[in-house]
Amino acid sequence: MNALREQFEQRLVQAGGCVVTPGDLDALLVGKVFVSAHPMCRPWAGRATCQDPREAEVALTGCDALIAETGTVAVLSGPVETRLSTLTAPTHVVVGREAQLAPDMETVFDRFADRLRPGVSPASLMFITGPSRTTDIEKTLVLGVHGPKKLAVVFVGDDGRAV
Is the pLDDT of residue 162 over 60? Predict the structure, then answer.
């Protein structure tokens, strides 16, 4: 395992997320499952049981970058990956590749500079660090109010197999 991946996995777990293997996905892809049209999700397209991410219990999406420094998933929204697909299901599973690892956020902005300019930019660039969390006025932590309660990342190679 390379150093960036090791750092990413450590930070993701610290933020409350987890890393799973492609073989572990069967246990996660249960109930109403939305599978995005992202190319990295194609091996699991047959597991989709709903077409609307707002109805899903589990959403399987791709990503555009993985930030090792913070264990953060970066997703450029657009026609393939919508904001809803990353926000509405209680469980969000992200498919990524080691080639998408970046040491820090600055590297991600540099990597996508050509796509993040006026007239070209996606609807949003989302940064997802662990499950959604919020606190009320009494400082009670609640997971899943503004997004998924569970975040899992699976690393695959170009062929969709574990790396």
Answer: no
CA-nearest of 52, 15, 45, 13 to 29 is 45
Please give the average per-residue pLDDT across 99-116, as a whole number. Answer: 90
CB 124 within 8 A of CB 81: no
Cα–Cα distance between 111 and 155 in angstroms, integer? 20
| Rounded to 5°, angle at Cα 57 from 56 and 61 | 70
For the structural domain made of 3-130+142-155, what CATH number should be given?
3.40.50.10420
Domain ranges of the chain: 3-130+142-155
pLDDT for 3 beyond 80: yes
Distance of alpha carbon 123 from alpha carbon 112, whole angstroms? 14
The model carries a pTM of 0.87
What would the 3-class secondary structure string for 47-106 be?
HCCCCCHHHCCEEEECCCEEECCCCEEEEECCCCCCHHHHHCCCEEEEEECHHHEECCHH
CA–CA gap between residue 97 and residue 116 (Å, rounded): 22
- Using alpha carbons, list the distances in angstroms from residue 89 to 7, 75, 151: 27, 16, 10
Three-state DSSP at 109 gives helix
